[in-house]
Task: structure prediction
Amino acid sequence: MDKELRIIISGGGTGGHIFPAVSIANAIKEKRPEVKILFVGALGRMEMQRVPAAGYEIKGLPVRGLIRPLWSLKNIGVLLDYFKSKRMAKQIIKDFRPMAAVGVGGYASGATLDAAHSLGVPSLIQEQNSYAGKTNKMLSTKVDKICVAYDGMERFFPSDKIMKTGNPVRQNIINADISREDAVRQFGLDPAKKTILIVGGSLGARTVNESVLSHLDDIEASGVQFIWQTGKYYNASIMQQLKFHEELPMLRVLDFISDMGAAYKAADLVISRAGASSISEFCLIGKPVILVPSPNVAEDHQTKNAMALVDRDAAMMVRDIEAKDKVIRLALDTVMDQHKLDSLSENVLKLGLPHSADVIADEVLKLAENKQ
Result:
């Protein structure tokens, strides 16, 4: 076998695409330490910083998403950029000579996997959501294997290519070696009190943040404490608004939480958006959660992700439009109901698919070995 194994991984745009991509890369590297892995991303998107920070080389393409309405003349430029990106991806592939290509969704993976297919490189895509993204639907007839996290994905993809693997998640969350008490203390709070964690993704979630601000009096009177990740975008204005309220020692406000493993350990209940990566984490650690799906995503896929849990009594859901009025009160009621917390935890654990990155890495290596 050719010792110099080379794999291309493409995609990004959000943490929900980047975390699985890096997890797959790490799993391949663990199995085959000599592997050379090259990432291909979209210029100006977060993968261009996050991937090098994880220790991998990345090349950027000028690819971007279609602008709505679709008949906008600006989409002529978007299409020209796509064809330019595909040409660039072809050159990257010719220079790098990968044995296999992996796409995780996002603008760059469309051009890269399309180019890989035209050059005869075996390829695999990983779909994180319960409702397939446009890029992966477009690629599904061209790739060799499709790794999914939900049942019923044959309505989007050829059934003979589908393999249910689950979503790779951040290892520091699964391997968090800290007790609940120490985790709570790490955030400067009291281990004797119930703790609710509020996260809206790395950029924050406006509706979720407004829910907290409009219920500060309820929070103060509840006897419950909160760890609140506001997101960097919203933090300054929130801190300004909190100045007009008296001290709230039960509210730990952070713009970003780097140690999510400790944050989850500290929490008796989580309020979160319904991104696929977050949901996979809740399933693997058995964390009770109230999901507030973002309405600002393609095909409302976060609501579909959430319903896959709600239908199995494995999570609760509040619609974004109702969250400002309902989510904090529901959380305060739920966190004091230990029977409900135990039931949610037990049911969500049943849905977890561990070792996803390893399973996907094995499939990538099979494709690469066939190529060699």
Observations:
- The first strand starts at residue 6 and ends at 10.
- The CA atoms of residues 63 and 80 lie 9 Å apart.
